[in-house]
Amino acid sequence: MSTPPPPSSPQTHTGTCHCGHIRFSITSPLPDVVSCDCSICIRRGALIQRIPDADFHPITPTAASLEDGTHGLIEYRFNTMVARDYICPVCGILGYRRPRLGTGVWAINVRCLEGVEVEKLEVRRVFGSQLSTVGVEGGVTGEGKEEAAKS
Ligand SMILES: [Zn+2]
């Protein structure tokens, strides 16, 4: 996560929140953009692409501040309190989130990426509303289950 982004390539995308407080780039194509129907995704309408840490390059706030918690963003947690949504405190836009899987994966708000024509993306629907609950048989379901099915 601390490696600087390589020079621009077709797979490099720059992302910002609305006001520019959050800036980042990713060095990844967008092979599996998802639209989720869970209680929060359905409200915010974000399109999400998950990428490995190595492909995520925070600019502001810095990677170090995201790690040590001094990033200054709103860090919203709910339900299992494991996933972390990083929201701009100025304009209220979600830039990215750490899914329940925790370290190793970032979930990027594709709608924040510059130059990406979201209407041209192939979007896969996922049904987080049926998975994201606490205390169901077997403990935490949702993202973990989805990820297991995907890998
Ligand atoms: Zn902002």
From TrEMBL:
<protein>
    <recommendedName>
        <fullName>CENP-V/GFA domain-containing protein</fullName>
    </recommendedName>
</protein>
<dbReference type="InterPro" id="IPR052355">
    <property type="entry name" value="CENP-V-like"/>
</dbReference>
<dbReference type="InterPro" id="IPR006913">
    <property type="entry name" value="CENP-V/GFA"/>
</dbReference>
<dbReference type="GO" id="GO:0046872">
    <property type="term" value="F:metal ion binding"/>
</dbReference>
<dbReference type="GO" id="GO:0016846">
    <property type="term" value="F:carbon-sulfur lyase activity"/>
</dbReference>
<keyword id="KW-0479">Metal-binding</keyword>
<dbReference type="InterPro" id="IPR011057">
    <property type="entry name" value="Mss4-like_sf"/>
</dbReference>
<feature type="domain" description="CENP-V/GFA">
    <location>
        <begin position="13"/>
        <end position="132"/>
    </location>
</feature>
<comment type="similarity">
    <text>Belongs to the Gfa family.</text>
</comment>
<dbReference type="Pfam" id="PF04828">
    <property type="entry name" value="GFA"/>
</dbReference>
<keyword id="KW-0862">Zinc</keyword>
